[in-house]
Amino acid sequence: MDPELHRVLRLKAAEVERSISDLVNDAVRRSLFEDARDLAEFELRTAEASLGFEEVLKDLKARGKI
């Protein structure tokens, strides 16, 4: 682990009266939860039509966005 990050983590753990391990576990859980949520969203969108880059640019230009 980056020494500076470890130092800040030690300070945070002391401030909130929790162990470094607890803080890291919570952070990893949150990250995995976000990943699971993203994957579920991707799964829901698999049926959506895909647009090509050129189509998106044309649409943005037609709507005066670019």
* Structural class label: mainly alpha
Domain count: 1
Compressed to H and E, one letter per element, the order equals: HHH
Whole-number mean pLDDT: 96
Helix content: over 70%
Major β-sheet, in short?
none
Shape: elongated
Unreliable runs? none
Q: What distance separates the N and C termini?
A: 44 Å
How many individual helices? 3
Radius of gyration: 21 Å
Beta-strand proportion: under 5%
Number of separate strands = 0
Present the secondary structure layout.
Layout: H1 3-16, H2 20-44, H3 53-62
Summarize the structure.
The protein has 66 residues and is an all-alpha fold. It has helices at 3-16, 20-44, 53-62.
Notes on the protein architecture:
There is one protein chain. The chain is an all-alpha fold. The chain has one domain (3-62). Helices cover 74% and strands 0% of the residues. The longest helix is centred in the middle third of the chain and has 25 residues, at 20-44. The radius of gyration is 21 Å and the shape is elongated. The model has no long low-confidence stretch (mean pLDDT 96).
